[in-house]
Amino acid sequence: LHALGIGFFGSMLIGMASRVSLGHSGQALEADALTWWLFWLVQLAALVRLLPDLLPGIAPYRIASVAAAIWLVAFGGWAWRYAPYYWRPRADGKPG
Predict the structure, then answer these.
(1) Is residue 93 part of a domain?
(2) What's the structural domain count of the chain?
(3) Percent helix, strand, coil in the chain (nearest 5)?
(4) Among residues 1, 12, 44, 95, which is most buried (max CB within 10 A)?
(5) Distance between terminal CA atoms of the chain?
């Protein structure tokens, strides 16, 4: 359930928030390479979260911390990439 939440929620958040940020800032609706890397980083976090279930010798609390760190790096990277769109004028010159 944790991995599903991490993977699904994270994927939807990156996908939808990226699309909305690009659209409302007048940018082309196309994900760049960094956005794709961040998307796959979220998938990695979900996979890492599954490791204690797949490999019984791994300490769950340590792996959960690693998965959380990967997830935070992904969303920190997303915020670094997309935050400037929120305080700059639209690229297409339209109001908003």
Answers:
(1) no
(2) 1
(3) 75, 0, 25
(4) 44
(5) 39
Domain assignment present for 62: yes
> pLDDT tens-digit profile of 4-39?
888 899 999 999 999 999 999 999 999 999 999 999
DSSP structure string for 38-66: HHHHHHHHHHHHHHHHHSTTS-HHHHHHH
What CA–CA distances, in Å, run from 6 to 66, 71, 77, 81, 86? 13, 8, 16, 21, 25
Calculate the alpha carbon distances from 54 to 9, 26, 57 in Å: 22, 44, 9
Its pTM surpasses 0.70? yes
75 is in which domain, residue-wise? 2-87
* CA neighbours closer than 13 Å in the CB half-sphere of residue 43: 7
């359930």: which residue's tokens? 1
